[in-house]
Amino acid sequence: MNGDVATLTSCPEAIRQLGRVYLTATGNALHILLKMVRCIDGHESIATHVQPVTTKLLSLVREWLGPSTPKIILTVYGEDDAGICWVLKILAQIQQQLVQLRLHGHPSALSFIDPGTFDELYQHLSSYVHPTEVLFVFLESIGYDYQTLLDLLLTLDDQQSGGMLAAIMTVLRNFTEHELGQTTLVNRWRDAISMEDTGVVSAEYDHDSPQGRSTHEHDGDVSSSTRARLFHVEFCLAELASQIRRLQSRNLFPYNPKALLVVLDRTCAVLTTVFSEPPDI
């Protein structure tokens, strides 16, 4: 999952299945770790397994995560609406479990986890497969076309999973309601914007490349800047919300969109505060 996109996607079905294996394994391991730290009090036998589980999970994450992972995921699953919905929802579950581990893990259990190991695990997952950022990459892949997104939201063929509606609701609700996860992203975006405004390289570094060279150097292309991308996302989501309200006012929207409009408005408000701020002096 951290290799060349063209090479890996030459056999898309194999990569789809590999992606499901890695994503599901990561989610299941986090679920087990969360259960362990919640019931560790008075169970010393459980405590001895917390660090080994965390270390093995970090090893798994290092194996399949990297700067190319979101692009590969969306390249492989991008033609399949159900696949995109599944990816967004499982990434949201992974992020939610990470936040719960950090905020609600039993203190006596967390004392058995090396802080450096857990921090690296958190940073790897939050940096490369944060559900909010993967959603934004998906919006970029469809040209920030709010009409396409609206069509996906109106397609409720998959009654069991809820389709794109459930996926976007889960991702954006986590983003707007969980302060820790939101703060992590907002600080990252602000740092990237600050670096771009001062002419420094933008975005993440590729640790596997020589000298840790950035894979996205700031080359003067304003459309690729963090501020521009966030602006496009905010515009897309704001137009989507406006279109939903117009349809609702004419009784043409097929379900009550109140909860969806709330998370869309809140997300737009957060994004506006990020890309509208003047650069640091």
What can you tell me about this protein's structure?
- The protein has 281 residues and is mostly helical.
- The chain folds into two domains: 1-129, no CATH class; 134-281, no CATH class.
- Helices cover 71% and strands 0% of the residues.
- The protein is built from 13 helices and no strands.
- The protein has helices spanning 5-8, 12-38, 44-64, 69-77, 81-104, 107-110, 115-128, 131-141, 146-154, 163-177, 179-197, 226-249, 258-275.
- The longest helix is centred in the first third of the chain and has 27 residues, at 12-38.
- The radius of gyration is 20 Å and the shape is globular.
Summarize it.
With 281 residues, the protein is mainly alpha-helical.
Instruction: Name the shape in a single word.
Output: globular
Helix/strand order: HHHHHHHHHHHHH
What number of domains? 2
End-to-end Cα distance, whole Å, is 39 Å
Question: Which percent range fits the helix content?
Answer: over 70%
Taking pLDDT < 50 over at least 5 consecutive residues as the criterion, the unreliable ranges are 202-223
The biggest sheet amounts to: none
User: What is the average per-residue confidence, as pLDDT, rounded to a whole number?
Assistant: 80
Helix and strand composition category = mainly alpha
Query: DSSP helix count?
Result: 13
**What fraction of residues sit in β-strands?**
under 5%
Number of separate strands: 0
